[in-house]
Amino acid sequence: MRNKVKEFREKANMTQEQLAKKLGVSRQTIISIEADRYNPSLILAFKIASAFDRLIEDVFDFSEVKGEIEHE
Questions:
Q1: CA angle, residues 62, 65, 15, in degrees to nearest 5
Q2: What is the domain count for the chain?
Q3: How much is the pTM?
Q4: Tens digit of pLDDT for each residue in 39-49?
Q5: How many whole angstroms separate alpha carbon 6 and alpha carbon 21?
Q6: Which domain holds residue 53?
Q7: Which of left, alpha, beta for 41 (phi over 0: left; psi -120 to 50: alpha)?
Q8: Which residues contact 62 (CB under 8 A, 6 or more apart)?
Q9: Which string of DSSP letters, residue by residue, matches 8-71?
Q10: What is the pLDDT of residues 26-62, one digit of tens each?
Q11: In CATH, what number is assigned to the domain containing residue 12?
């Protein structure tokens, strides 16, 4: 699942460490999310979106997930 975490974080002039601390996760978690190597839980995705005062759909691209559901 693609995301815009890095883009929103940089626009907010926030470091990975600052975002991680705000969300209660490790910096490594933020690194992995930004690199599309880790999909956060729904709760963490909501917290990330809320940290930027955005909707989850603004930060995360669910089109791949929707496509998988439609093919089942």
A1: 40
A2: 1
A3: 0.86
A4: 999 999 999 99
A5: 15
A6: 2-70
A7: beta
A8: 1
A9: HHHHTT--HHHHHHHHTS-HHHHHHHHTTS-PPPHHHHHHHHHHTT--HHHHB--HHHHHHHHT
A10: 999 999 999 999 999 999 999 999 999 999 999 999 8
A11: 1.10.260.40
